[in-house]
Specification:
117 residues; alpha/beta; Nucleotidyltransferase, domain 5; 5-stranded mixed sheet; 4 helices
């Protein structure tokens, strides 16, 4: 597969929900996306163990609502604020992938160039 987008989408198993996380110092922003790139919910949670528990509960609720088989977290690695969440997910054996912030910026630029105003 020469297309990098197709190769990256192949990393997500069929029927899984992707939780995109943009980590910040105090509160992280998250979005639930299905395989057909439909955004289902957006929410924020604290950068603490209690906040991570809340995010897991929201992810489980979205899984039930979208009838997904599982969840994969996609974490942007801008600063160092992603580490707490990554350690939390790792100790619970929840799969996650890191997303390069430059890649996200390029995707947003491509999307903006394609959309008519």
């Amino acid at each position: 597969m020469k297309n990098s987008t197709a190769r990256k989408l192949k990393q997500v198993h069929k029927g899984y929900l992707v939780m995109g996380v943009d980590p910040h110092k105090k509160r992280h922003a998250a979005v639930a996306i299905t395989q057909n790139f439909t955004t289902h919910s957006k929410f924020k949670f604290d950068n603490s163990r209690e906040g991570f528990e809340v995010a897991l509960e929201r992810a489980k609720a979205e899984m039930v609502r979208t009838s997904s088989r599982g969840v994969i977290f996609a974490i942007e690695t801008g600063g160092h604020y992603w580490r707490n969440l990554a350690y939390f997910l790792d100790e619970r054996s929840i799969p996650f992938h890191f997303i390069n912030q430059f890649t996200l910026k390029r995707r947003r630029e491509e999307k903006a160039a394609c959309s008519p105003l």
